[in-house]
Specification:
Shape: globular
Largest sheet: none
Strand content: under 5%
Structural class: mainly alpha
Radius of gyration: 15 Å
Length: about 160
């Protein structure tokens, strides 16, 4: 398994306060979930091939009613927005777009992506706890999601 060579930023950098520019960011729920997923993946400074595959697989399942042409456009829009706005602004816009159920879904996908390498470091746990809090997900639900994703992704450590 690859080791982590990059550190995740201080969660305040990603989930911190924003200025009023977030008002100008209009996202659909699909774009908002994608934005949170992408922000979680790139938070450590790199995107592994496993993260790319998991991101695509999660979105294919979640948005199965959309056409296959929609996905490249979805990712392209989120990528362009991430070049124009800082991570905190994009995160705030995404969070404001999502209802509580979709925030939990976005957190589950982000957790899956963070743990896809089969390693769950203290740094990753701290990051995910901060993400859950920023998304206003209860500690109980956040911990359950992390537990399930740890079982899903980290079982190979025990085999």
């Amino acid at each position: 398994m690859p080791s982590h060579s990059h550190q995740r930023p201080n969660p305040a950098e990603l989930f911190g306060t924003t200025n009023n520019n977030t008002i100008a960011i209009n996202l659909t729920p699909a774009e908002a979930v994608t934005a949170i997923s992408v922000l979680a993946v790139v938070a450590d400074g790199e995107i592994s091939e496993a993260e790319k595959q998991t991101l695509a697989a999660n979105h294919i399942r979640l948005f199965s009613s959309y056409s296959s042409e929609y996905f490249p456009e979805l990712f392209k829009k989120v990528r362009k927005l991430s070049e124009v706005y800082n991570p905190a602004e994009l995160f705030a816009a995404a969070k404001n777009t999502l209802n509580p159920q979709l925030r939990a879904t976005a957190f589950a996908i982000a957790t899956d992506l963070v743990l896809v390498d089969g390693i769950f470091t203290q740094e990753e746990q701290d990051f995910l706890v901060e993400l859950a809090a920023a998304l206003e997900i209860s500690d109980d639900l956040g911990n359950k999601i992390m537990e399930v994703m740890t079982i899903k992704n980290c079982a190979q450590s025990f085999l």
